[in-house]
Amino acid sequence: MKDGFGRRIEYLRISVTDKCNLRCVYCMPEEGLPWLKREDLLSYEEIAEVVRVMAGMGLRRVRLTGGEPLVRQDLPRLAAMISSVPGIEDLSLSTNAVLLADMAKELRQAGVDRLNISLDSLDPERFDAIVRRPGSFQRVMAGLEAAEREGFAPIKLNVVLIRGENDHEVADFAAITRERPWHIRFIELMPTGSNLELSAARTVTCDEVLETLQEVGRLDPVTGPTGNGPARYFRFPGAPGTVGVITPMSHNFCDQCNRMRLTADGQLRPCLFGHLQTDLRGPLRQGEALEPFIEETLRVKPQRHLLEQGVSTGSGGLIALSQTGG
Fold it and tell me: Is 254 exposed, middle or buried (0-12, 13-18, 19+ CB in 10 A)?
């Protein structure tokens, strides 16, 4: 699959639910959102059919996302269905890890290879304040321990930086990579309808992160771990892990985009942001061939996003990142 700019599209992020058990200050309003109705969600069989069709067109990598994907019942069953599709070479999962401890073994056996885990602070009280759900930090730590025990690799930890909240923890996060084979990725805050004030006033650029870390010790550019993302990676000499930066705001990386997104209600989005999307749920339930709809989505995939800090226009009306899988 290639889009109109010659980019090879071989990666699909699948949102299995718009619901989440946390309320991170940069992602979702504390009161939540109007949730999708159950009948509007794609069934696991429908999701697997989309993957099967797209695999025949060149799809090779799939990531399960949400909301929080682990809140959807029996997720390992979907993972097993996708991992068995001919042509799919890699299946990964993005999670906040709150529910991971009890599900890690089953997910690994179902074919999930890799994990991205959100961890925005190493301080339990600060973490719980950011996610607005008391007691979450210890559950996330238990999930991380289970992930290591079950052999997920690589394990990537995503840190969304907020000035005055967790930016003073940059060096502490990076120090983890000297001891453990974890990959810490610092991510610039992206604006949506629910976080405009936050994104306008408290964004930290990854250039600032790298400046801070150069004072801690020498960082050498390296090829990152297995994955599909746009992060740039660095390593302290002899460290088993890496430090990565993801810069959607300060350094646009859309020219390297290799992905599309399938929302929980069956909309195929060529970009995380913007208004463009193609309904696959209707054709799927009417028994129509999906290939023409997928090809049309490839054709209209934009050259780049149009995000600006503190402004909602470029986000395409999104209230929360959870609506499209982040």
Answer: middle
